[in-house]
Model the fold of this input.
Amino acid sequence: RTDDGQLALYQPQAGEYYDDDEHMMGQGGGPIRTSSLDAPTMKLTGHKGSVYCLSYDPTGQVLCSGSFDMTCLLWSATGDCANFNVLSGHKNAILDCKFAADSDHVATASADKHVAWWDANTGSRLRRF
Done:
């Protein structure tokens, strides 16, 4: 953690190693990215296949995960990190997912050669391209 309470991710250099989850041994490194998310470590279970993509909404409060199982799961990124919605309807693996700037909509791209536009609050597919 940095002095202001944010999590810092470090880029190890050749010859460096970690002796536990918090201490880096060796020279150099240094923070390359920080996070002030309420839940910096999340254990998410629910997909039946490999996860191919992840996307946070612009507020950082919701995470979308897209999978080989042809679904996207929406997760609360705070508290118990509960799954609160499932976006299903693609006929092949989800390859990418992105939130709209309003955080209320998600675009997904699938190996079924379609893009879908979803209502993140209801899980309804609004449009298929």
